[in-house]
Amino acid sequence: MKKYFLLIFLFTSLIVKSQNQTIDNIVDEATNNSQLEKLAHELLDVVGPRLVGTPQMKNAHDWAVNKYGSWGISARNHKWGEWRGWERISTHIDMIEPRKRSLTGMQLAWNPSTSKRGITGEIAIMPEFEDKSSFNAWIETIKGKIVLTSMPQPTGRPDYNWEKHATPESFEKMKADRDEMSKKWRKNLQNAGFGWRLNNSVFEEAGAAGLISSNWARGFGANRIFSAGTKKIPHIDLELEDYGMLYRMAKYGNNPKIKIVATSKEHGIVPTFNTIAQIKGVEKPDEYVILSAHFDSWDGATGATDNGTGTLVMMETMRVLKAMYPNPKRTILVGHWGSEEQGLNGSRAFVEDFPNIVDNTQALFNQDNGTGRVVNISGQGFLHSYDYVSKWLRPVPREITKHIKTTFPGSPGGGGSDYASFVAAGVPAFSLSSLSWSYGDYTWHTNRDTYDKVVFDDVRSNVILTAILTYMASEDDSKASREKAILPISPRTGRQMSWPTKRSPNRKGGIEEDSKPPSGGNQRGGRGRPSSPPNR
């Protein structure tokens, strides 16, 4: 009997020693042979932004497949839908009266192209309307003009800058004045017959030559860049400083006139993809640990922190695991999802198209909200998530876990990013939620989301975390429980919360809506959003 227990002890010791060695190897490889900076350069500088339907998006998918192949990892692009094909070319905006000056802005996504000669027109702003009839009278005057459609901001300084330098009285007065200005702007829109936002087709049908908006993110120089709200005329986002100048000139009768050359190219209907790669399991090849990050971005910049950094984490994790854990117990699969920004479409398509994989997934780890180190992990409403997630976290270096707050069992995410597509299908899917690094007011969907905003030390930390979580989930002798917790009463509705339901993807983006004008706002149904509203 003593020999029996001794053998068990020795066998267990060997397993623990082997496990510890693998984890040490993972940490060493991720730390001392990191490929993150080069990967980031190739993806962000060379491939560039990854708007669904653009050639750059397809280039990114092909680049990822080739990169995985160079590491000896099997990868492919899986077509799940079609999208309106479009390509941004260039935007030039010049004020030509009352003086000459180049302005800073860009055409919005899927913007109708101007000719190479562009358009020239006077600036028009909306006056105060008493009712719909006064709006109807005014709109007869805008033919051939370029209409400013956003409220001018009273200050271009972020709130944190005011709080640091202004007197408390001045800061409070600025906020009160801004709130009052916003109320008057909304009331004016209501008087004009609009709801909570403008219907840009009204201006287009009235003969406006173009539209200019300014979607300030409340950070110095940062504007959010979404999709155009027009079908035939240019729709430009202008940075706050230039937008405010034009607005004031029009308001005080200086009659500004500008020229816009905003060229783009239509590519018809194009296929859209997810990139899928995997390291095949040797003991339980039909069970999966999934790494998850959306691949697409808006194209105001290069999508560095949304979601270039999440993409880099998952690619580098796969590289490290292939080098240090080439024969996993379970199959390790990575999904680089397309069209997350328009409503989690790529991951929803995967859930629909691969039910056997979904049903046999041990766990999924998703990263999508900026460059910062992971600071929050929720159990997503799975009753026993504490038991296995805590076990998988245990060997992660203390210098990483000391920053992480865990919440168990938590509540299931109904949206926000691609993990929600899997949670709705009952998969233990976890969001590795990051520290902000001013994500909300500087890089989330903005013209400032570029390589230089990446904090590589934090991204390296996230690679180590993700690789160890993946290794531990793969090696776990037990199947992770999918039992759901009884959800609490919603403080908003007063009723018991319900588990999110699976939703189908939009597999024909920008195609079936051709007869309708684009809405021109934030069109994404899911995102790597800041966990709380930033100063915006």
Protein described:
The strands form 3 sheets. Strands 1, 2, 3, 4, 5, 6, 9, 10, 11, 12, 13, 16 and 18 form a 13-stranded mixed sheet that branches. This protein has a 3-stranded mixed sheet with strand order 15-14-17. Strands 7-8 form a two-stranded antiparallel sheet. 47% of the residues are buried. It is of the alpha/beta class and 536 residues long. It contains 16 helices and 18 strands. 36% of the residues lie in helices and 22% in strands. Helix 9 (304-324) packs across helix 16. Residues 514-527 and 531-536 have low confidence and may be disordered. It has helices at residues 2-32, 36-47, 55-70, 132-139, 159-165, 168-191, 201-205, 240-251, 304-324, 345-353, 355-359, 385-393, 398-401, 419-423, 439-443, 456-475, and strands spanning 74-97, 101-103, 105-107, 119-124, 146-148, 210-213, 216-219, 222-223, 235-238, 257-279, 284-294, 330-337, 361-366, 374-378, 405-407, 429-431, 433-434, 508-509. The chain starts with a helix and ends in a 27-residue tail after the last strand. The longest helix is centred in the first third of the chain and has 31 residues, at 2-32.
Radius of gyration: 26 Å
How widely separated are the two ends?
Answer: 69 Å
By secondary-structure content and strand pairing, the structural class works out as alpha/beta
Assign an overall shape.
elongated
The biggest beta sheet is recorded as:
13 strands, mixed
Low-confidence stretches: 514-527, 531-536
Which bin fits the share of residues in helices?
25-40%
Tell me the number of helical segments per DSSP (H or I, 4 or more residues long).
16
Portion in strands: 15-25%
What is the count of β-strands? 18
- The pLDDT mean sits at 93
